[in-house]
Amino acid sequence: MKRTRRALLFVPGTEGAKLEKAAKLGVDCVIADWEDAAALSKKPEARATTLAALASVDFGRSERVVRVNPIGSGLEPDDFAALASATTPPDAVMLPKVEDAMHVRFASSRLAEIEQARGLPLGTIRILGILETALGLVNAREIACSDPRLDALAFGAEDYCGDVGATRTAEGHEVAWGKRALVVHAAAARLQALDTPFVDLNDVERLKADTRRSMELGYTGRLAIHPKQVEPIVAVFTPSADEIAAARRLVDEHTRHQAEGRGVFQLDGKMVDMPMVRAAERVLARAKSAGVA
Ligand code: COA
Ligand code: MG
Question: Is the CB of 25 inside a 6 Å radius of any atom of ligand 1?
Answer without folding.
Answer: no
